[in-house]
Write a structure and sequence with these properties.
about 20% strand; six-stranded antiparallel beta sheet; about 40% helix
Length: about 350
């Protein structure tokens, strides 16, 4: 898949902008707060997901304007397509001239893999960030997974509410017996999908990380299931083993909402002992691996969006990103135009105060 044209109107600090990218690497450079990330953010919205920078759609509309409009034309293996997103207090989407019931209907229609500085939290922060990464990635290739997550979280909220508010041990125990079967079925489905995803992405991530590190380092990761003492327990048994602890602590202590992904570089924890360059490389490798997997599942290579990716990477790692990502359209933002000099092809765009110059 490749983007042929992007048109933005009244989007954040961009009054009006038209960008015609190449099918390879596109570098958008300029000083801070000029609009570089706004362009990547606008592209990402066509995945059907929310902004990676703002929880409120209204914040995407330029100050003093009542709406913003985003248009994109793109090519897939089968056809030329177009999409439009209009934002007032909420988003509305149109695909090939047909109004969609919700922007989430764009999922799997416009695949993209995004790396932003906030994505470093995947490596540096706690388990919730790694769960968020894997769940978002699975949703892009298996939209029905989002439904399973929603149903699981509803039951989790119910379960925690009863555990917290009911002091009657017998009543709480009876409630858990009623809810645990449905809760376990959904939780087990989430676990299976996550484990399957990690097993599928691992070969791509290890290969990409080896390229980034020039073969000097090796990345590995594994899924850690909270409460699984033997490595092959199902959630129903895990919940039974922790029932007394759940009642005592007044919260659900086990389940996919408490699981983690262990990420290591050269068999050592990346979170605890990795350098900033290694952590950034690990996060980039996971994102590029995600892109390869999207291509495998839906038969379309996603657009790669890399925001402020060059900082804290040495010259050889920058060279890999600029010159060795093959067969994918890439958009990169950076502040330092000097790093562009290492690019052997592609196209560059200089942005200043929301305008291309």
């Amino acid at each position: 898949m490749k983007i042929n044209r992007i048109e933005l109107k009244n989007y954040r600090n961009i009054e009006s902008l038209e960008l015609v990218p190449c099918e390879g690497v596109n570098v958008i450079y300029g000083e801070n707060a000029q609009g570089k990330t706004n362009i990547l953010e606008s592209i990402f919205l066509f995945t059907g997901l929310k902004s990676f920078r703002s929880s409120k759609d209204s914040e995407l509309v330029a100050f003093g304007k009542d709406h913003t409009k985003l248009n994109i034309s793109f090519s897939t293996k089968t056809r030329e397509q177009s999409a439009e997103i209009k934002i007032t207090d909420r988003r509305r989407a149109v695909l090939n001239g047909v109004s969609l019931p919700s922007p989430t209907a764009l999922m799997s229609k416009f695949p993209a893999a995004l790396f932003s500085p906030g994505f470093m939290s995947l490596i540096q922060n706690g388990p919730s960030e790694r769960r968020k990464f894997i769940d978002s990635a699975i949703c892009q290739i298996t939209p029905k997974y989002a439904v399973v997550l929603t149903e699981y979280n509803k039951l989790l909220k119910q379960r925690n509410s009863v555990l917290k508010d009911n002091d009657n041990y017998r009543e709480t125990k009876l409630f858990l017996e009623c809810i645990n079967e449905a809760f376990s079925i959904l939780g087990e489905e989430i676990y299976i999908e996550r484990k399957k995803y990690l097993d599928s992405i691992l070969p791509y991530v290890t290969d990409i990380y080896a390229g980034l590190s020039s073969g000097k380092e090796e990345i590995s990761f594994s899924y850690i299931r909270k409460g699984d003492r033997t490595g092959d327990m199902n959630l129903s048994d895990i919940l039974k083993n922790h029932e007394t602890a759940d009642i005592s602590s007044k919260m659900t202590l086990t389940g996919p909402h408490r699981d983690d992904i262990d990420i290591n570089i050269n068999s050592v924890s990346a979170r605890s002992f990795g350098s900033q360059g290694q952590k950034r490389s690990a996060a980039i490798a996971l994102k590029l691996g995600e892109a390869e997997l999207i291509n495998n599942f839906i038969g379309e290579r996603p657009v790669i969006l890399l925001d402020d990716v060059m900082s804290e990477l040495d010259a050889s790692r920058q060279d890999y990103i600029l010159n060795h990502i093959k067969d994918m359209q890439v958009f990169i933002t950076c502040c330092e135009p000097g790093s562009i000099l290492r690019m052997s092809g592609g196209k560059t765009f200089n942005i200043n105060n929301g305008r291309l110059i």
